[in-house]
């Protein structure tokens, strides 16, 4: 890369650290660190939710699928999320917000101890944290792949550089730093994506390339589904992403919790949903056009990086690279904050009695230490990502398949329709989904559709079925569900100066 590119990337890293240090002044309590004190405006919560939902995997693994299979990757990879978050804006966003405002919950799993019991809470906490180690490791490996193609930086050093910068600002500034850097990263990534789109359209003959390119691509590239990414996969992905992006990925639940009220939480979710449906089309168009511009490349996963280094002048290459960094760092920093919340609020008090009586300063110190340990561990695993199935293998076959069994009790446990499903249903559905995955993937070497769909469908059937066949309804369960189902707030209105106030 040119010196101008390195200056651009370095400036981006410095900006992220400065934001983290500035956010430090806004973090005085554990609530500030994990839920921004419930003071995050809806537009920031929405953009942060969106930016925290995908990473450099988009520019590596998903770009590879776009190169070989076409638009199918948008439908199961992005549109499914947009639909799922839209559903969540109606079903889950307000409930997460009430958990914070009414019950004082700071961790997405904190309410499970009362809703079910401590063993259920611990089972979901440990299994979810373990899964997230591998999920984030895949993200580090993806961004290291990009850095390797762009600048020849060895994979290990790429992981260390991006991981260390992320670790500084998310450890110092907590959720405020995550959200504010998410916004800055969104702006940088937007500029980079528009630059890349403009250059690709120029190569295709102008703006008309937006509609003429499709006639030049192989016909199979225009199909929303393929023999591998079938209609069943698409439908299952909508179900998986509805659970995953509305709280199954714990960091995204925090965005709903951080909003000032339920009205703002729903608005933020709707903004994120719209961004997922529209904005990926801008970023992915160059990926769809790549077979025409750089045909017959040996590794499709490198397609986006090759186009960037081939077509863009010095300086703009660094801008695009910073935009790619932004996705991974946004997701990983928010994941680290959520995992830290779970470790500090849910796991440590069970393992160590002293943690139950932490002061605010001790709680903050524990949160920051657990963040450091978690991120360092993911970086170590990232160096072995290729041996674990590569980026797409981890993200699709591991995370997408195993997220369902963890998400089902967590999300459905908040809904009145499932108040009869207690701890027995939660633990059995969790274990049953994991066993179903092991049988499908390792026992029968099943297809992608079967591997992804079996765990979540088994978990759903067990959780719902046991609730009706062996109900465990309790007064504490009814109290929690009724509290988060009922909105005591009056719908806000706009004042003359444009601010949101109670009606």
UniProtKB/TrEMBL annotation:
Residue ranges spanning the membrane: these are 6-22, 42-67, 73-93, 130-151, 157-176, 183-201, 221-240, 274-297, 303-325, 363-382, 388-413, 425-444, 450-470
Q: Output the superkingdom of the source species.
A: Bacteria
One GO cellular component from the entry? plasma membrane
Membrane topology type: Multi-pass membrane protein
Q: Where in the cell is it found?
A: Cell membrane
Q: Which UniProt keywords apply?
A: Cell membrane, Ion transport, Membrane, Sodium, Sodium transport, Transmembrane, Transmembrane helix, Transport
The protein's matches in Pfam families, at most eight in alphabetical order, are given as: SSF
Q: Which InterPro entries does the record associate with it?
A: Na/Glc_symporter_sf, Na/solute_symporter, Sodium:Solute_Symporter_SSF
The Gene Ontology terms for molecular function here are: symporter activity
Q: Name one GO biological process term.
A: sodium ion transport
* Family that this chain belongs to: Belongs to the sodium:solute symporter (SSF) (TC 2.A.21) family.
Name of the protein in question: Na+:solute symporter
């Amino acid at each position: 890369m040119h010196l101008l590119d390195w200056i651009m990337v370095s400036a981006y890293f410095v900006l992220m650290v400065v934001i983290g240090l500035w956010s430090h002044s806004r973090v005085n309590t554990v609530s500030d660190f994990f839920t921004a004190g419930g003071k995050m405006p809806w537009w920031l919560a929405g953009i942060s939710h969106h930016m925290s939902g995908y990473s450099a995997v988009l520019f590596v693994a998903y770009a590879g699928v776009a190169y070989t299979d076409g638009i199918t990757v948008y439908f199961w990879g992005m549109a499914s999320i947009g639909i799922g978050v839209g559903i969540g804006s109606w079903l889950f966003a307000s409930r997460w917000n009430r958990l914070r405002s009414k019950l004082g919950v700071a961790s997405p799993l904190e309410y499970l101890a009362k809703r079910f019991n401590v063993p259920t809470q611990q089972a979901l906490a440990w299994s979810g944290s373990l899964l997230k180690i591998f999920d984030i490791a895949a993200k580090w490996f993806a961004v290291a792949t990009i850095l390797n193609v762009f600048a020849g930086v060895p994979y290990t050093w790429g992981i260390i550089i991006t991981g260390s910068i992320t670790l500084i600002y998310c450890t110092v500034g907590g959720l405020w730093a995550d959200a504010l850097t998410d916004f800055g990263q969104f702006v940088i990534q937007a500029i980079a994506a528009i630059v890349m789109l403009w250059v690709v359209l120029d190569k295709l003959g102008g703006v008309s390339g937006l509609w003429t390119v499709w006639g030049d691509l192989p016909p199979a590239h225009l199909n929303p589904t393929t023999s591998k990414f079938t209609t069943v996969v698409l439908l299952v992905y909508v179900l998986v992403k509805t659970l995953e992006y509305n709280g199954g990925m714990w960091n995204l639940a925090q965005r709903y919790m951080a909003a000032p009220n339920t009205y703002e939480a729903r608005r933020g979710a709707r903004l994120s949903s719209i961004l997922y449906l529209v904005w990926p089309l801008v970023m992915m168009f160059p990926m769809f056009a790549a077979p025409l511009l750089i045909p017959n490349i040996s590794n499709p996963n490198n397609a986006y990086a090759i186009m960037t280094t081939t077509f863009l002048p010095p300086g703009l290459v660094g801008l695009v690279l910073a935009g790619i960094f932004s996705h991974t760092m946004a997701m990983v920093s928010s994941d680290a904050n959520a995992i830290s919340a779970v470790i500090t609020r849910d796991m440590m008090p069970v393992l160590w009695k002293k943690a139950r009586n932490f002061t605010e300063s001790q709680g903050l110190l524990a949160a920051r230490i657990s963040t450091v340990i978690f991120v360092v561990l993911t970086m170590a695993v990232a160096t072995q990502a290729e041996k674990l199935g590569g980026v797409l293998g981890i993200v699709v076959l591991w995370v997408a398949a195993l997220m369902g069994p963890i998400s089902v009790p967590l999300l459905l446990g908040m809904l009145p329709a499932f108040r009869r499903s207690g701890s027995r249903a939660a633990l059995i559905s969790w274990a049953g989904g994991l066993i179903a995955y092991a049988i499908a993937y390792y026992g029968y070497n099943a297809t992608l559709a079967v591997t992804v769909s079996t765990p979540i469908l088994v978990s759903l059937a067990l959780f719902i079925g046991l609730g009706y066949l062996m109900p465990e309804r309790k007064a504490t369960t009814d109290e929690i569900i009724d509290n988060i189902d009922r909105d005591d707030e009056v719908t806000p209105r706009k004042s003359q100066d444009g601010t949101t106030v109670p009606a």
